[in-house]
Amino acid sequence: MELTPVSERFILHWGEMGTRWGVNRTVAQIHALLYLLGRPVTADNIAETLGVARSNVSNSLKELQAWKLARVVHIMGDRRDHFETSTDIWELFRLIVEGRRQRELDPTLAMLRDSLASPELSEEDAEAQTRIRNTLAFLETLTTWSDEMLRMKPDTLMKTLGLGAKLSRTVRRLKQ
C-alpha cells in the first residue's frame, strides 16, 4: 500500500503522540493506519506499509487487541488474519478512557482507599492524611464525572461539552 503524504504525516504524528501518552510508537502508528484505512488489513501489509518488522507488528497488534483497539477479522477465501479498528472516534475515545482508567486510576483509587483504611494511617502527619483524602475525593469525582460522560450518546456528549465550554467562558468573563 502506498500512503499519501497526508496519511503519512498523520501516522507519523500519531506515533509521536503515542510516545508522549506512554504508548509504543509502532503501536500508535499501526492504530493510526488501521483507523485511516477503515478496512481490514493483514499484518504483512501493515509491516510492508509502515516499514517495520513483522514481529514488531505482531506484538503491536496484540497490544492493540488487549486495549480492544484492534480486532481480528476473517475474509472469505483468505486464511490469513486481517485486523481492523473502529472508525467511530467516540467509540475509540471511550475504549481508551476505559482502558486507561482500568490500568491507571482504578489501582490508584484502591491504594488510596486501602491507605485511608489502614491502621498505619495514624502514623502519618495530619497534612499528609488530608492530602491523601483530598486526592481520593478528587479522583472519585473525576471518575464519576467521566463515567457519566461515557454513558452519553455522542451527540448528547458534544452538546454537553459545548455547554460546558460556554459556561466556562461566561464564568471567566464574570471574574474579570
UniProtKB/TrEMBL annotation:
InterPro entries: HTH-GbsR_regulator (IPR052362), HTH_MarR-typ (IPR000835), MJ1563 (IPR026282), WH-like_DNA-bd_sf (IPR036388), WH_DNA-bd_sf (IPR036390). Keywords: DNA-binding, Transcription, Transcription regulation. Residues 22-80 form the HTH marR-type domain. One of its GO terms (molecular function) is DNA binding. Pfam families: MarR_2. PANTHER family: HTH-TYPE TRANSCRIPTIONAL REGULATOR MJ1563-RELATED. Belongs to the GbsR family. This is HTH-type transcriptional regulator.
